[in-house]
Amino acid sequence: MSGIILAIESSCDETSAAVVKNGAVLSNIVSTQEIHQKYGGVVPELASRAHQKNILPVVNEALTEANINKSDLDAIAFTKGPGLLGALLVGASFAKGMAMALKKPLIGVNHMQAHILAHFIDAPQPNFPFLCLTVSGGHTQLVVVKSPLEMEVIGETIDDAVGEAFDKTAKIMGLDYPGGPFIDKFAKEGDPTKFKFPNVNIPDYNFSFSGIKTAFLNFMRKETQKDPDFVEKNKADLCASIQFTLISILMKKLKKAAKELNIKEIGIAGGVSANSGLRNTLLEEGKKLGWNVFIPEFEHCTDNAAMIAIAAHYQYEGEDFEALSTSPNPRMKFTGSK
Ligand code: KG4
Ligand code: ZN
User: Fold this and answer.
1) 136 CB under 6 A from ligand 1?
2) Which residue has its alpha carbon closest to ligand 1 atom 10?
3) With 50 as the cut, is the pLDDT of residue 337 above it?
4) Spatial CA neighbour of 112 closest among 94, 89, 92, 138
5) Do 168 and 199 share a domain, yes or no?
C-alpha cells in the first residue's frame, strides 16, 4: 500500500512540512526560527508561538511545491516525539485537524527513528542490518537498524547529547547559537592537537559529554584570566581541538560496535552529522575498515519534514495509524521495534 502523505515536523525550532508520494519526496519546506539566536538556546514558549505562526504557510508551500491538492492526500503524518511538548502540540493539533477534516488516517512518527530513515530518501541506501550513529542536539545514540520499522538502541549518552556539547562549548567561546556549525567552520583553519581535553571511559556502547563540557569551561576560565584575548587569539585551534575530541569519542564507540557486531554498513544521522569533520573522519576510517559508509544530504541531517515523510511512508505501508485522541510524547522512547 503506497500513497501520498503530508508530513509535519515541529519538535524543536524548525517548522517543516513535506509531501511524499510512493516513497519519493516531492517537497520539503523548512522554516528555521531565528528568534532563539539572541537567547543563546531554544526558548520553548517562543518556539511554540513561532510554530503557530509558520505552520500554515509552510504546509501550503509544501503542497504547492509538490503540486498536490489537500484532497489528493492519503494520510497526514506528524512528529509525535521526542521534543518540546508545546512545539510538538502545534504540529500534532494541526495534523489532527487536517486528518479529521479530510477523513484520512493519522500517522505519529518518532523523530529519532525519522532521522535514521533520512538514509532512505535518496540513493544509495544501506542494506540491513546497518549501524547508525544518531547525533543531534538532544540525543546521541548507536542504533542497529534491522528494517525501516525495527530498530534497537544499543547505546546512548548518559548525560548531555553531543550536539549540546558542541553548542555549550561554542557558547563558552562567545559564539552564536547554535554553535555547532560555527565550531565546524573555524575548526577548518585550526590545529586539532593544540589543546587536549579528557576523554572519559564509559562502559559498553554508551557516551558521556558533560565532563568534557565542564573541563572546557574550567580551562577557558583559567586561560582568559591570564589573557582576556585568549579566545580571539586561539579560536581556530580551540574549535579544532574540541571538535576533534568530540569526534574521537563518537568514533571510538562506533568502531567498537561495528567490530563486535560485525556490521560493515555504517551510517550517521541527526544535526551533528552535518559536521564536516565527522563526515570526513567517517569516510577515512570507513575506507580503512572496509565499511560501506552512508551520510545523508546536508538538508536531511538537521531537522526537516522529509525524514518524517519517509518514516510515515513505511508506517503507512504497515498500516501503523494513530487514533484522533492521540497526543504527543515529549519523551517518546525508541524501544526496539516501534
Ligand atoms: O537534529 P537537529 O537539527 O535537532 C535536534 O533534533 O536536536 O540537531 C541540532 C544540533 C545542534 O546541536 C547543532 O549545533 C548541531 O546539530 N549541528 C552541528 C552542525 N550542524 C548542526 N554540529 C556540528 N557541526 C555542524 N556542522
Ligand atoms: Zn532532530
Assistant:
1) yes
2) 137
3) no
4) 138
5) yes
